[in-house]
Amino acid sequence: LESARNTDALRRVLASGAPEDSDLFVSRLSKRHVITVFYPVGYGDLVLSGALPVEHLNDVMATGVPADRVAVLYDRQGRIIARSRDADQFVGQLASPELRARIAAAHEGTGTLQAAPAAGGFVAFTHLANGWISAIEAPPEIVTGPMRAWEREMLLKLLGFAALAFVEIGRASC
């Protein structure tokens, strides 16, 4: 982080007594994506801070997430901090303008994405206490697959019922 931003974060933490997390950035030393955590200690006059590589967050995001879904952690700017899958390809990228607009418009929400490449996919998100956003993204098959199976089943049952009705009509006319 640039020194002015560090100074601002330190002042906020000292004034509030509450911890603060930075948005995602690339460390000048390690050239890796990191976040900085500022944590007040002592009697309001000390702050412990450190840069944490986000690879650990990718592992946390992957815990318990079904293979057909993607858990994503965004910073306050809508930049991907961590992902449960394909993190190497996506960490550091901004969310789509469509998703950033949805995130800016509500504290939490769900919806179907319209823009490529995620067109038709479903997303649910919520803002976390530190200002970051946690989201889960799922392909349309999650909902449409079971719905289509149910539609096929109902259609087959209706066809069976219609066949039985024709048989009964045929018997009644004899």
Task: Report on the architecture of this protein.
With 174 residues, this protein is of the alpha+beta class. The chain contains five helices and nine strands. The protein has helices at residues 3-16, 55-62, 87-90, 97-105, 141-173, and strands spanning 20-21, 25-26, 33-41, 46-53, 70-74, 80-83, 108-112, 122-127, 133-138. The strands form two sheets. It has a five-stranded antiparallel sheet with strand order 6-5-9-8-7. Strand 5 (70-74) and strand 6 (80-83) form a beta hairpin. The longest helix is centred in the last third of the chain and has 33 residues, at 141-173. 18% of the residues are buried. The model has no long low-confidence stretch (mean pLDDT 86).
Brief sketch in words of this structure:
The chain has 174 residues and is of the alpha+beta class. Helices cover 39% and strands 27% of the residues.
Give average pLDDT, whole number: 86
The radius of gyration is: 25 Å
Q: How is the biggest beta sheet arranged?
A: 5 strands, antiparallel
Low-confidence region ranges: none
Tell me how many strands there are.
9
Strand order of the largest sheet: 6-5-9-8-7
Q: Span between N and C termini?
A: 89 Å
Order of helices and strands: HEEEEHEEHHEEEH
Q: From the helix content, strand content and strand pairing, which structural class follows?
A: alpha+beta
Q: Choose one word for the global shape.
A: elongated
The number of helical runs is 5
Strand composition percent: 25-35%
Helical content stands at: 25-40%
